[in-house]
Structure formats: C-alpha cells, structure tokens
Amino acid sequence: MRTSVVDVGSNTVRLMVADAEGGVPLPVHTAKWRLRLSEQVRPGGPVPEEAVERLVGAVAEASRTADRWGASEPLAFATAVVRAAPNRREVLRTVQARTGVPLCTLPGEVEAELTFLAARRWMGWRSG
Questions:
Q1: 18-27: burial string, b at 16+ Cβ within 10 Å, e else
Q2: Sheet with 103-105, side-by-side order of all strands
Q3: Which residues does 91 contact at the CB level (< 8 Å), separation at least 6?
Q4: Which of 7, 33, 50, 114 has the CB geometry, 3.0–4.6 Å to 14, for a possible disulfide?
C-alpha cells in the first residue's frame, strides 16, 4: 500500500509518499513548499487570508502529487502556527472545502513526541 502524509509546519508544507507494505514505511517521494507562515502570523493573531490562500494551494498541489505517485489521499496535519491561531477552525474548514483534504491539528505534546521519535529514529539511540 502506498500512503502519503502532509505536514503543515511553521515554514513549509512537506509531503512524504511512502510504501507501507509490511514493516517500516519506505519513502519513495518527498516534496516541499515554502510558505513561511510563521512570518505572516503575529503571536496570538489569526492566519491572514493571503496565507490561507497559499496554504490551500500548497495542500492541493501536495494532494495532486501524492495522487501522481499512486498514494491514497494524504493524512494532513498542521502544527503550532495553525493550532495556536484564533481562526484555526476556519483555516481547517477552508483547506478541506477547497482541496478535499481533511487537515487536522496535533496537540503540542503529540507533536513533540513524534518529533523526538523521528529524531531518534534518524540519529539512532546511541547518538546521546
């Protein structure tokens, strides 16, 4: 089975397409779009409309790219910039309505755990 994940971060939207048959998923394609959302959102402020437009475009392109690589609809997650925005629900609804991709936010603790596990997997347990 080929699957895909979209990570909407503070600076980039990243796509990972992987073959997930059996054991460890094996990446087959990655792509990223630089949006620099963190530079457009003031602390405690909403995600501006022009930033939402760019986000919609990036998620739509990520979905099309995943489809070209034969992957299922992406699992899409947004991190701190969207999670903390007072217009978070509107941003999530807009992305889904305009792209068909349900975008979810991760709680900060879950995001931290996944980041830790990814770093450990990449660097190895002996890295300190």
A1: beeeeeebee
A2: 26-34, 12-19, 2-8, 75-78, 103-105
A3: 47, 52, 55, 78, 82, 85, 103
A4: 7
Cβ contact 82:88 at 8 Å: yes
Rounded CA-CA distance 13/11 in Å is: 7
Residue-wise pLDDT tens digits, 10-26: 999 999 999 988 777 88
Domain ranges in the chain are 2-127
Helix axes 49-68, 88-99, angle to 10 degrees: 40
Taking Cα atoms as reference points, which of 106, 109, 69, 75 lies closest to residue 88? 106
What does the pLDDT read at residue 116?
81
- CATH 3.30.420.40, domain 2-127, yes or no: yes
Instruction: Kindly report the length of the chain.
Output: 128
Q: How confident is the model at residue 126 (pLDDT cuts 50, 70, 90)?
A: low
